[in-house]
Each structure stands twice: as C-alpha cells, then as structure tokens.
Fold these 2 entries.
Entry 1:
Amino acid sequence: MEDVILTMKGIDKTFPGVHALNHVDFDVRRGEVHALMGENGAGKSTLMKVLTGICAKDSGEIVFEGRTVEFRSPGEAQEAGIVIVHQELNMIGHLTVAQNIFIGREPKRGLFIDDARMNKEAAKLFAQLRIDIDPKETMSNLTVAKQQMCEIAKAISHDAKVIIFDEPTAALTENEIEQLFAIIQDLRAKGYGIVYISHRMDEIKRITDRVTVMRDGQYIGTLITAECTKEDIISMMVGRVIYEDPKTENRCPPGAPVVLKVEHLNAGRLVRDVSFELHQGEILGFAGLVGAGRTETARALFGADPRDSGDIYIDGKKAEIHSPRDAVKAGIGYLSEDRKRFGAVLQKSVAENTTLASLQKFMKGIFIDKRREAGTAAEHVKALKTKTPDVEQPVKNLSGGNQQKVIIAKWLVSDARIMIFDEPTRGIDVGAKQEIYELMAKLAETGKSIIMISSELAEILRLSDRIIVMCEGRITGEMDIADATQEKIMAAATREIDQQRQAGAKEGSRP
Amino acid sequence: MKIRIERFRALRPVRAVGFSRVVLTLVLILLCLLFQALSAIVNHGSVFLTYERLISAVNYGYFIGFMALGVTFVIATGGIDFSIGSVMFAAGLISGYCFRHYGFPMAACLVMCPLIGMVFGLVNGFLVSYVRLPSFITSLGLMQIAKSVGSLFTRTQNVSWPGESEAGGWFRSLANLKITLSGGRVLNIPTGMILLIAVAVLCSVVLHKTRAGRYMLHLGSNREAVHLSGVDTRRWEILAYVICGTLAGFAAIFYVSCYTTVLPGKGDTFNNEAIAACVMGGTSMAGGLASILGTLIGTQMIAVMQEGILAMGLSISFQYALTALILISAVIADISSRRRN
C-alpha cells in the first residue's frame, strides 16, 4: 500500500533470559492513529525502543518511507522523522518554552543565539497546532499538559512524519485530554502517522483507527477499531494459555480473623481512598497494570512513604505506623519488587541479611552472637532450600530466587505475621518461581497473612484466595478466586475514568 | 606466578589479615627502602632510616592515626568528613587557651579535647542523618566553622602547650614517655603507639562485633534496604560522626604533645592525609567496606611519606600534592576493584 509510511517486519530481540520480541510485525499509515496495546511486559516499549534506535534489534527489517533503515540512536531516528513523546517529559524546567523546543539547534546570529527568531519560530509552531502558549514562558511554570504540547511542537519542528505517544494521558485532566485529542485529530488530518500506546480502553475506541495487540513479545493481531469491541481487544491481550493450574477455591477458612484492616488510605496521586481487609492465612492478590498504585499502597502501608490520611488496624487495634520501623514492630514485612535496591544488602553475607530486621535478638551483651546468627541462618537455608555454599556467602553471589529466599528468611526471623510480596518472582527463572509459589502457599498454611502484588495474571490466579484490582490509585474490583477470570481482572484494571469516579463516590458514601 | 599469588592468598594468616593488607605492608617496607636509597643518593650518604627520623615518623602517625580511625566509621556509612583537621585544631586551641589563660588543670584540658570534637561530630552527624544533607557539604561547612570558633576563642593567637619541664608538661608522656637512664641516656617509649593500637583494637571491635558497627557497614552498602528492614538508620549514622569527631578531638592531644603549638585558622591540610590513610587501607569510599587494620597501616604509610620527603631535602609543600595523588590513586584502585566484581 502506498500510504504505508513505516513497516516493521519480523522484528526479533532477545535480552539475557527473555525473548522480548518474537518476529513482530507492525506498520503505520499516513493519516492514521494506530494503537499499540498489550499487558505490561508484552513488548510494546521494546518495540518502540527498537524503532527509535534506543536498542538494537537482533533481526528483522524496518522500512521507512520506502527505504530500509537502521537507526543507531534516538537522534538518528529523530533526524529521519520518527519522534517519541515520552510518558515522562524530557523538558528542562528552567529554560523557556522556545529554548526547550530548539535545544541543540538554536538559530544563531553570528556567535549569539537569535532569541527573537527562536521565539517567532516557536510561536509559528503553536499557531499551526492551534495551541496558546507563550514561547517566552519558563517551562516549569506550565502544566504537565502544556509541557506535553511543547513536546509535540518540538516533534513537529523536527519535521517528524511518525509521532509516537507513550501513555500521553496518564497525567492529564479530562479537559486536557480533550485538548490533546483535538491536536491528535488535527495531526492525523495533516497526514502524520501516529502510534498511540495506552491502557485506557475508552481512549483507544475514541481516537484510534487500528489496534495492534502484543502479548509475551509476540504479535497477536491487528483489528480495525471501529469494527471490534473492547472485549475483543481484552481477550486478545490476555488469551495466553496458563500452564500451571489456577486456584479454584478460597483456601482461607471462612471464620479466619481479620489481621489487617486498611481504611480510606490516601497517599499522593496513586493511592486514593484504598480500603481492604486481610485475613489470617490468606493470600490477597493485588492485580493491576504497572502504575496502578499497588506498590505505592504497600509502601504507604509499610510506612516507607508518608500517607496523607487513612487508618490502619492490626488485630482490630489501631496501629500507628509512620516508618518501616513501626511496621516491623507491628509484625509487617515488605519484600520489594526491586530486591537489589530495597531488599538485600548484596555485598553482605546470607547470615547478616537473615538477621537484618531482628539483630537485637542476636545480642550477647553489646556483642553480636555470631555463632547463633550463623546457626539461625543455616536453619533457614535448610528449611527454605536456599542454594548457597554457606551462610558466609555474599548475597550478590546468589541467584534471584535464592536472594528472594534469604529475604523471606529475614522476615521469618523477625516474626513478621503479615508479609507483603511485591512482584515476588520478578527476575526469577521458571523453576525457582515454582519454589517461591510453593513457599508462599506454605507460609499461608502456617498462618502467615500475605499480600501479593503481581502484574502477572497467571501468578495472581494461581496463588490468591481473594483478588483486589487497582487502577490509577483506586480499587476498581474485588473478587473471590472462585469468581475470578483473566477477563474480569483485565476489565477492572483498565476501567474507564468516569466509571472509576462513580465507584469512588460509592465507596466514599459507604460507612 | 599467578598460581603462586593465589597460593599465598590462601595461606591462613594472610586470609586472617586480608591479602590487600599484606600487600600494603610490603609496599610500606619497600617505600622505606626506596627512601633509604634515594636519600642516600640525594644527600650524599645521609640516610633515611635513622632513629630520629623513625621517631619523627611515628609521632606524625599519632594524630593522623586517630583522625583516620575516626573517619573510617564515617566512610563506612558512605559519608565523608572534611572537618576533622580543623576540629582537631579547634580542640587544641580552645583547651590549650583554657590552660594558659583560665588556669584550667591539665587533666581537665585533656578531657576537653575529645569533648569538643564530639560536639562538632554531633552537629555534623545531626545535619547528615536527621536533616538529610550531604556529608560532603556539612563537613566542609563545619571545617570553616571549626576554624572560626578556634580563632575567635583565642583572639586569633597561637596557643602553645606547656613544654616537658613546665607545669602540666606531664601530658607529653601520653605520646612519648621519656625515662632517663643511669648513664644519662634518655630512653623514649612511644606510648602514643600503644594508645593508638589500643584505640584501634577498640574501633575494630565496635565495627565488627557490635550492632552499631554492623549497621554502619550495612548503611554504607544499601541504606534503603536497611531502612526498609525497620532499622533506625539515623541513630547509627549520627553515631559514626560522633565517633569521628571525638577521635579528631582526641588526636589534638597527640598533635600538641609532639608539636606544641597550634595555629588559629589552620588544620584543614590534615584531612586529606587521614582520609588517604583510610582509603589506602581498603576502606571503600562508596561505603560498606572498612578495615581498621588497613587504616592503621595506611597511617604509617602517610607518616613515612612525610618523613621521606623531608629526608630527601624536599619542601614539605610536596606532601600536599603527593597525598592528593595517593588519595586519588587509592580511590581509583577501589573503584576498579569494585567494577571487576
């Protein structure tokens, strides 16, 4: 087809241990908005990174305007006319709007920058986009939406032909979204090719012409937006075969006492009026897309981040948790998704990491009783089947799964009764995953209460007794494992904004 | 060759002390021999390894040593303290002035030294751990404040501590105990070295056997992980600065007992030497790794270097550049060894 401006064919990319892109096809036509969808980790970002030269492909072909191209840096891609408007904006706050747009290629008059011409050029761009922004304004004084429009203006000034929007509406209000859509429609009419990445189903339906769905690094299919339903898209996104048996019933006994109760928790933009209960011996799954506010909820609950309001009750008694120290004293343990940064002290030994949260129990007078410490660590190595030559081994020498086990041991030694697992198997290979799952199930059986945050639906369905789904800081779904399906969870995780508002209002009115 | 090194590395005593410490000691000995040879050539026969020069080097190592031991704790937590030299001088100035002008007893003045250091350490530590400022900035600030405080207290005058024969001169035997033998010969016992080693042993115990030391090292390795394990990181961090300041104050006693006079507005040149001693000894600037024994050996290295430069008849101004070069090379060695891992 002659109006196809960009074609990606058979793109393959492997990272150590992960086949990130498996022969993916994708194309963009002049004057269309093409949505790219998929769960987290489906490969959307990697595909765009390959396209814009941020990372190199292993094989496959990119044809742009009839020529085979291979960009080695985002600069080259930009030069050719492919520009990405990032989710996090790349503007320099203390420069003016015009300075930001023309950074690195300022118009000059002799040795000096020709500010007047630069401002005039910027004004021309804004006029073209029908945006009202003063080129002389300092960037940091603009709203996020306005900054984004500057990014778009910058893209156009680069003579872009393909513009990629990566979750552009994540930080915008409804009015601002309308404005953005008007601009996008306008760009489409002018013949730009637009790639639109978003998780918001209603937006996809409203402004895109075609939808391409990816899953697990593979191209699944492309649909004409007008001819498909939301359900079609969702089922394409989640339609993977689950090899492990999902749990079919809630194994937590019906009369189990509530050990943790969170009421109307608010913390920043991503934790809004979150309320839930956790029973003894229960695994409560927190599902949702990345950025839904699950980690933020966990951190606020654990005292790692400040909370704006809300109460926490442990065993029915109000708990004052303002720091991780308070949380640990109250019997909560947090296993971060980023083990290297927030979990283990990598340079130090298995033994030292095992007692990290409860060293006061291993004191003999003012000295650390290293023999008892090593003994306890060895016991846990044995019980959890941690693979390590000895307990003196630095944790950094262990594999991801075994590092996770050392962190689990740390919380067992500190007698944590409530354990928050944040992405418990991230970066852990398949065999070790299985072991971590069994370990978590066993912990629940022995009466530990577990909150498990996971972006892998299979993991959620396999372990949880109950599931809470979050979207944009709010709880948008709660279901028993017996009623849960991938489709239901995905629908709640991508629930539209107005529906959330209603849900929020209802929750607010509940006593 | 490689296999031989590996075999040597695996020897029990070598493992106990640490391979790099053994290498450092060998370098120290080589350095002495090098200076011996060079000074013999330069000075037509006058050599480096004489009794006087050795005593002089050992004396120099006392105050540098106490400062270096203290700053080892701060560097272990991943911080830095540039104020120790000026804090030492402030302690020497204030307590010496109290002795001279307010008639304080010598014993009280000796106790005042570490206490003054402690106050500076407390302020520095508070700013770093509770106000969460970078230690690099706070300690540079405290360096200047310590200079000002010392100068203002003494009205910008030098302070000379009493000589051996003067009243209160007994304090000098803390560094060098001089016994006159029957034949009129004077025997010099380096008591300062005994005290330095005793304090080093104490430091080593604190760093490796107690909760405080454990948490300081863990803090330097991964502060966030320690914090999220429910440890009150601020408490242990401030303690490192307090120890550092106290030992810097303590160092003042040994400075004045060897060099008598403290000048106002000075002292900052000794920071680099103490920090270099520490880093040379294997304490990582990135935090998390520290060796007290290494600091002790590094200190002797700095002392020998200073004496060697004098022995060759070179200006002491060389010392500043040389220390800086050593510090930079030690940090390069530290970084490249961590990259390899």
Note: Chain B has 13 helices and four strands.
Entry 2:
Amino acid sequence: MPATHHLTTPLSKDDIRKLRIGDLAFISGTVYAARDAAHKRMIEALDRGDPLPFDPRGQIVYYVGPTPAKPGKPIGSAGPTTSGRMDAYTPRLLQLGLAGMIGKGNRSRAVMDAIRDNVCVYFAATGGAAALISRCIKSYVVLAWPELGPEALAAMEVENFPVTVVADCYGGDQYEEGAKPYRRV
Amino acid sequence: MREISAELIRDTVARLAVEACCRLPESTLNAMRRARERELSPTGRDVLGQLIRNADIAAAENAPICQDTGLAVVFAEIGQDVHITGGLFEDAVNQGVARGYTEGYLRKSSVEEPLFERKNTGDNTPAVIHTRLVAGDRIRLRLAPKGAGSENKGALHMLVPADGLEGVKKAVLETVRHAGASPCPPMVVGVGIGGNMELACLCAKKACARDVESRNPDPRYARLEDELLELVNGLGTGPAGLGGSVTAFKVNVEFCATHIACLPVAVNINCNAARHAEAVL
C-alpha cells in the first residue's frame, strides 16, 4: 500500500530515505523551475567554474515551461515536461547535492544510478494536468536568463504540490514495477 | 466564385487556437470518464480524476489544458471555388496563430531554426499547414495543437509487404512500448499505413488528430483499430505511465495507396490532451 508524505523543501537525506516508489507526496516550499535551455546554461556555468544561480543542496528542480501568467495570476498552466531530455545534465547536479526532480517519463540508466548513489529522488507530476497543478503554485520569480522566456530559471513557491515517487534511493523504478501487474503483451 | 477575406481566416484561426488549447473536445472528455470507470489501477483512476478536474478548470478559466500548447498544426480544405481576398492564405493563418497565442496567453514554443541558435520566434509561428484543394466554395479549418512530449515519441517504419499485418502490429506496439510514460498516457495513437515516407507520416498525423469517437470507415481497418488498442492496453503502461490497464483511449488508423514494394507504417502519438477545434467558412 503506497504511503502518503507531506514534504517541505529543502529535503534531508532522512526525508528521502522514507520515500518508496509508488508513494504519494505533497510538496511545499521553494522548487526551482528549469528545463532544457536552463540546464544547458547551468552546466556551462559549472564548466566555467561559476556558481549556479541557486544553491542546489537539498533542493528540487521542476521540469516545467509554463504558459504566460494572465493578469493577477502568479503563473499560467504549469505541468511537467519530459524529464529524459535533461538526462545528460542531471547526474552532475545530483552530485552537487540536488535532492530531486519533478517531471514525467523514464530516465537513463546513468540518472537512475546517480539517484541511488547520491540518495536522491525523482517524482512524477501528472502530465496534462497543467491547469490543476498551477493552483498549487503561489509565486514564480525568474532568477536567471529571462531571455529564455518559458525556459528561464525560476524559483517557485508551491503548496501541497501532488506528485508520485517514480524513482527512489533504493534503485526502484515505478515505471517498470507499476506496469508489471497489468502487462499482457 | 465565393469570396472569403484573409481577415476572416486570420480571426478564425486565432479563435480556434485558444479554443483548442483551453477546451478539451467533449469526445476526449468522455473517453477520460469511460477510462476512469474501467481502469483497474487505483493510481490510474486517481490520475484520470486529476485529468478530468484539470479539463474542467481549464474550460472554466479559459486556461490552457497543458502548458505545452504545441506547434499549431492546421489542416485546411479549401474549396476550389473560393477566392481569398485581401492577403495570402498562409499569411492569414500565421497572423491568426500569432494573435491567438499572444492574446490567449498560450506558450510560444516555436524556434526559428533547429540546430544552432534555436531562437524562439516569439509568437508561435510558423504554423504547420497542410492544405488540400477540394470541391465547393467553403474553407474548412481544423487546428490541432501538438505538444512535443508525444510528438518526440513517434516513429516511421519502412516495412516491406512480406511483413504484413503482424509486422504492422509489431511496429505500432514497439513504438508505444518505447514511448513509455513520456507522451502523457492515456494517449491517442495515430497510425498511417501505406503511401511513401512523407504520406505515411501525414496519414499518421491525420489519424492522430481524428476524433476519439470516430472509426475508420473501412471495416477491416476499423477492426485493426480495435485490435491495436487491445494490444497497446496490454502493455500495462497505464495513466501517466504509473501502471494500469488504460494506456490509450483510442488507436486511429488511416491508410492510402502504396508502391508494390512498400509497406510504410508511421506512428504519431497524441497525449491525453487530444485537442482540436474546427470551423467551416
């Protein structure tokens, strides 16, 4: 039976060790919005020896490129984008202390290994539930690279953001395990 | 000869862009409701419940169903007795897309060149426009915004005739298996069979943009749609890929004539937000 957790960022290693694949979690606090272009720039910054625009230790990155905010709203629709496109960049961020990611879809072997070896977690938000998810997002502040538009690096305050644990620090993979009882071909 | 102004085409496209991105077709919503009833996984049912709530919120607030409001794919059937006045057809469509995506607070996801700078065009143009000349004096415009999560998981398989029906089934099944959770299941799978390379892909895109409640008018291909759906739902991928019995709402198949030596099979996947909006001028 999957457990339900209420988590506040930054996450500790103890928080992460309690999480198992299939568990539900409601996340509150700051999460960092970044996708393809912001990841590329973060890695370029590290290659130059520059610091990242935020301290990644214990933090969660949300793979999202929201629609523009309507007047009076903090953000537009903001569901997860496909995580696999960030696979090339992710292990390095996890080694620097990033606690986890929110996205959707399968990860590479290298990312799954880095999640296990660095005691991290990968959550899935429901792809396509972008209007519903945006109700959990209370603020959205661009931290770097505003010229990237929806791909800019931003800090978001979230309240009870619903996610499912899809990769845990024990090597579990919900995408693999979850399908097994229903697989007929 | 009936005159239709470029301005009317522009305004219609702008309206269709917002409508398609914010309002899920009733048929897709019905497919979600039916899927929630028959889904065996409790997590899967919960995901489908979220998607139905999401569609309700999006419609009520005129907010995008998904943040990926896609490239604007436009299928246009232009009656050859129509005379378009006051501008070029493609300019009118692109102006409509720019206006709809800007005024409707939709995301601009188009980059002007794929490899070097990847600079955003800023207004989601250019649209992907597929035009057919047809009989009559009307213009039918169908706008189907297409996000990348599902688009990236499509594939073209250049089979040969000896591969036959089993080869087609295997190609579709392996494409969907490989797609996993990324295209936001439950999905709509569009399959194009026959033609040559580009025609197979276009057939798959048309199939993908077809309504979930439609069936191929040829009973043999309608039966294939059912068989493929049964196979795909046997993968266990389930809603959001978390495991379950409903991986796809529907498999739509389109076919066309092909070469004696060819059996192309294109698979174009649509996400759970199977969106489209249509108008006839």
Note: Residues 177 and 183 of chain A are 10 Å apart (CA to CA).
